[in-house]
Structures are given as C-alpha cells and as structure tokens.
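fyi for ur records
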Amino acid sequence: MELINFDELKKSDENTHLHFLLPNCHYLLVGPTACGKTTLLCNMIMRWMNPDKVTIYTINPDQDKYQLLDDFYNFIQRELEVDDEMFEIRDPEDVIPVENLDIDTNK
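which gave:
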C-alpha cells in the first residue's frame, strides 16, 4: 500500500490541515466488491488508530479478515485485562439511526 508523505506536500497560504484519520469520529467505508474496503479497515484499526471499541456492520461476517480482527482484540483484552467487549460484528439492520446517537458521547 502506498502512503502519502504529508511532510513533503507544499503548504498553501491558507490555514489548511491534512488529516488522514480524525479522532472520535464515525467512519463509513463504501465501495464495490473487492475494492479493498476490508483491507483498509484492518489497516486503520490495527495500524493507524487506537479505538476503545470497534463495531463492524456487515452482511459478510465470516470473512477471514474479520476473524483476524476478532483475534487481535481478544489478545488485547486478555493482555490488558479489559472486561468490556472491544470488538463486535453486527448485522446492518442493527445500525443505530443517527438521530438516536448521543452528541456528547458520540455513541
């Protein structure tokens, strides 16, 4: 996977900020089959982010990469002795409507 070196980009006169991933945000990955959504998701979660909890809504819960993520979080939970579930896979019908999210906690 090729990465952009943001340090080498020329700065404009405007006050611009280049962020790849913003903290405390919900992300939605959308694209056609086999375009790399799950691969990007695994990289985001395992390399570039430090989320307290990950919930994945998918119609394909049996993908090998989701098992990899489950094993990854089970290991972290054991090592850190965390009781709360850190990773779950849910059906798309379980998605919480935006209007039901708590704006203060982002949950």
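The chain is about 25% helix and 5% strand. thats all i got for now
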